């Protein structure tokens, strides 16, 4: 029977079979299930066609849109701050004349911890009764109240951002530091001779060179944050009263707690669009920044 | 006025001293070349003048201002780097106008000065390109353009031709010389290539191990080298240099070969003194093939054997065996020579140099 198949197809067949089984089939199945009222508790519901009902429901559901917007807000704030701190950190480490390598390793420590543990740690630190933060603030006399970090909606989002930023600033720092190390020194010296102040040197010479590195970090981190789940799940579990609900905590809750798998997959498909949009945006920026500095990589 | 003066200039990295208190006065509008082998401190000196390296001791002044503690941007200098150091994200026009933009000059003035510099260096056709789209020679011209636009008091060149291929190097070299004639600024040019120094500079500063060996016009350093090092460094092919001992009016080399003691040194050396004898390839020639007839009083003839020849068309470099080593000689109106051939050589001893064997200093001074 193989004789009828052309050799190129035949040779590619093993790969095709594996890809179909592992990637394509689940993808199509999940896409299909987003058009059904599939509930984990009622397997038969997988075979009921519901058309666009799930999508209609989501697009008119303010709970979903609130989570969606909150994710975008968290992404914007965390990404910008991480970028800023990472840049500062990288510039400082780059200035070090001694122990640069040790500093570089130390910088990566936060990345070595499981996000779940980071979540627990920050949950403890931000605890309104026994947490470090309130204790410190009270001891310093800055407040005499127990600030409800994880109970007030806005403060909770702030606390989550802090945990995110703490654990991932080093992604920016490492990549930007790589850029700084790869950067030729002569243009910087030329700028100094050309009359630039240190700030102008940074603004017009160093920063354009670092931009591609920053965009790579942005792409990686935007995907990371867009699928943020673990830290939020541990610290607030989307609470209080869904004030810190992000897309994926909502998807998780809908799929497993509420058992509405069909609805959850529909949400997931819409959310992925968010990630794709960000990725395309940053890749465009990256490509532009690379041509700008005439990068040969 | 932009004379540059270095007084007791010292550069130290920790305990290591790189430049040992050098003094140098560079006149306004002068083209000075700092030349020497790698690690002699010439680039460090230039970078100290630019303000890119701190000064460990001594004083640098540009014009009438001591600039020791001024940042580079306040010294009114321009620098051209070996690796061009163009801003990769800016077009040629933006690169050249950058310093003026930073200085907040009007767009009209920037355009005017950039266009003028572009014309001087024939860069007009390349103005909208980025450095990555230019060849090495073009990039270096842009770097020079960027320097001109600033209209600085002093131009600093740090081995600007080292990254270019041989043909381009001579081409850009001529352009630099033309540039100096046009802009009439003080120029300080660092190179390890003595040919560049000789062709470009009004005066050459020869450096070695953080000291200045000699300062002089190209003619002076070529004809009257102050030290054995300068004698060997300037000139291509290099001067033939060999140690000898003065014995009864003769210079006796280690292997027993000898030459008469040049008359001009008769009163300057003692019998038994160890000296270093030097003679340029132009002053040793197969008899009848030299710059002059070889019949003058102070020309000595010796028979030697040919080791190898390098024909260059109008002349041939002949390597001959004498005094236990190979000597280079320049043969004009060459004829074909065979390896091992015995040859009558003329040594023009009126052009000979003698240096002290201990200090390396010239005995002619």
Annotation keywords:
heterodimer, A: 297 residues, mainly alpha, MetI-like fold, 13 helices, flat, B: 365 residues, alpha+beta, Rossmann fold, OB fold (Dihydrolipoamide Acetyltransferase, E2P), 2 domains, 6-stranded mixed beta sheet, 20 strands, ATP-binding (chain B), ATP hydrolysis activity (chain B), Sugar ABC transporter ATP-binding protein (chain B), ABC_transpr_MalK-like (chain B)
Summarize the structure.
The complex is a heterodimer of chains A (297) and B (365). By secondary structure, chain A is mainly α.
Describe the main β-sheet of chain A briefly: none
In round numbers, the mean pLDDT of chain A is 87
* Whole-angstrom Rg of chain A: 24 Å
In percent terms, what proportion of residues of chain B is strand?
25-35%
What would the CATH topology of chain A be?
MetI-like fold
| Radius of gyration of chain B from CA coordinates | 24 Å
Helix percent of chain B reads: 10-25%
Report the span from N to C terminus of chain A: 47 Å
Total DSSP helices of chain A: 13
Written account of the structure:
The complex is a heterodimer of chains A (297) and B (365). Chain A has helices at 7-33, 53-59, 62-95, 100-107, 109-112, 115-125, 132-139, 153-182, 186-193, 198-226, 230-235, 247-257, 261-292. Chain A is an all-alpha fold and 297 residues long. Chain A has one domain: MetI-like (MetI-like fold). In chain A, helix 6 (115-125) packs across helix 8, helix 8 packs across helix 10 and helix 10 runs antiparallel to helix 13. The longest helix of chain A has 34 residues, at 62-95. Chain A is flat and about 70 Å long. The two termini of chain A are 47 Å apart. The model of chain A has no long low-confidence stretch (mean pLDDT 87). Chain B folds into two domains: 4-226, Rossmann fold, CATH 3.40.50.300; 240-356, Nucleic acid-binding proteins (OB fold (Dihydrolipoamide Acetyltransferase, E2P)). Helix content of chain B is 23%, strand content 34%. In chain B, helix 2 (92-102) packs across helix 3, helix 3 packs across helix 4 and helix 4 packs parallel to helix 5. Chain B is elongated, with a radius of gyration of 24 Å. The mean pLDDT of chain B is 90. At the A-B interface, helix 9 and helix 10 of A face strand 6 and helix 2 of B. Chain A: Pfam families: BPD_transp_1.
């Amino acid at each position: 029977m193989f004789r009828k198949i052309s050799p190129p197809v035949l040779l590619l067949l093993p790969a095709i079979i594996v890809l179909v089984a592992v990637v394509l089939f689940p993808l199509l199945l999940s896409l299909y299930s987003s058009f059904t009222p599939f509930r984990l508790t009622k397997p038969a519901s997988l075979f009921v066609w519901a058309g666009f009902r799930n999508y209609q429901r989501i697009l008119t559901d303010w709970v979903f849109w609130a989570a969606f917007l909150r994710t975008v807000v968290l992404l914007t704030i965390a990404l910008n701050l991480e970028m800023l701190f990472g840049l500062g950190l990288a510039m400082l480490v780059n200035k070090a004349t001694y122990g640069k390598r040790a500093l570089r390793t130390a910088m990566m420590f936060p990345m070595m911890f499981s996000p779940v543990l980071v979540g627990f740690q920050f949950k403890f630190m931000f605890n309104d009764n026994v947490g470090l933060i309130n204790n410190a603030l009270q001891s310093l006399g800055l407040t005499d109240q127990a600030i409800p970090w994880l109970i007030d909606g806005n403060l909770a989002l702030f606390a989550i951002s802090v945990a995110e930023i703490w654990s991932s600033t080093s992604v920016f720092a490492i990549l930007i530091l790589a850029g700084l190390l790869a950067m030729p020194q002569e243009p910087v010296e030329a700028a100094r001779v050309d009359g630039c102040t240190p700030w102008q040197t940074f603004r017009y010479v160093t920063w354009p060179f670092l931009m591609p590195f920053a965009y790579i970090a942005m792409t990686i981190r935007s995907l990371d944050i867009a699928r943020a789940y673990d830290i939020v799940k541990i610290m607030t579990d989307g609470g209080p009263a869904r004030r810190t609900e992000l897309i994926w905590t909502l998807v998780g809750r809908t799929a497993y707690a509420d058992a509405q798998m069909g609805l959850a997959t529909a949400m997931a498909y819409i959310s992925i669009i968010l990630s794709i949009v960000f990725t395309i945006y940053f890749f465009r920026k990256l490509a532009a920044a690379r041509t700008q500095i005439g990068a040969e990589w | 006025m932009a004379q540059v003066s270095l007084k007791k200039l010292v550069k130290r990295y920790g305990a290591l001293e790189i430049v040992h208190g050098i003094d140098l006065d560079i006149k306004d509008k002068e083209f000075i070349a700092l030349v020497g082998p790698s690690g002699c401190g010439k680039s460090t000196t230039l970078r100290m003048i630019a303000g890119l390296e701190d000064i460990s001791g001594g004083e640098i002044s540009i014009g009438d201002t001591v600039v020791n503690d001024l940042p580079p941007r306040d010294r009114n200098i321009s620098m051209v780097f070996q690796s061009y150091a163009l801003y990769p994200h800016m077009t040629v026009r933006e690169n050249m106008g950058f310093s003026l933009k930073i200085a907040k000059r009007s767009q009209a003035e920037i355009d005017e000065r950039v266009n003028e510099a572009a014309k001087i260096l024939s860069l007009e056709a390349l103005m909208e390109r980025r450095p990555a789209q230019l060849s090495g020679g073009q990039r270096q011209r842009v770097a020079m353009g960027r320097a001109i636009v600033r209209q600085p008091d002093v131009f600093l060149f740090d081995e600007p031709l080292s990254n270019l291929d041989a043909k381009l190097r001579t081409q850009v070299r001529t352009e630099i010389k033309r540039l100096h004639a046009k802009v009439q600024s003080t120029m300080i040019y660092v190179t390890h290539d003595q040919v560049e120094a000789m062709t470009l500079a009004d005066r050459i500063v020869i450096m070695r191990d953080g000291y200045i060996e000699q300062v002089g016009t190209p003619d002076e350093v070529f004809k009257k080298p102050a030290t054995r090092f300068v004698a060997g460094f300037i000139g291509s092919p290099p001067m033939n240099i060999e140690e000898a001992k003065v014995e009864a009016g003769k210079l006796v080399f280690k292997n027993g070969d000898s030459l008469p003691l040049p008359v001009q040194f008769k009163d300057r050396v003692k019998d038994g003194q160890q000296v270093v004898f030097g003679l340029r390839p132009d002053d040793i020639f197969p008899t009848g093939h030299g710059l002059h007839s070889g019949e003058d009083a102070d020309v000595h003839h010796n028979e030697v054997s040919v080791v190898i020849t390098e024909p260059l068309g109008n002349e041939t470099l002949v390597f001959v065996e004498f005094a236990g080593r190979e000597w280079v000689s320049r043969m004009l109106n060459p004829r074909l020579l065979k390896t091992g051939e015995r040859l009558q050589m003329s040594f023009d001893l009126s052009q000979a140099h003698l240096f002290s064997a201990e200090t390396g200093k010239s005995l002619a001074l």
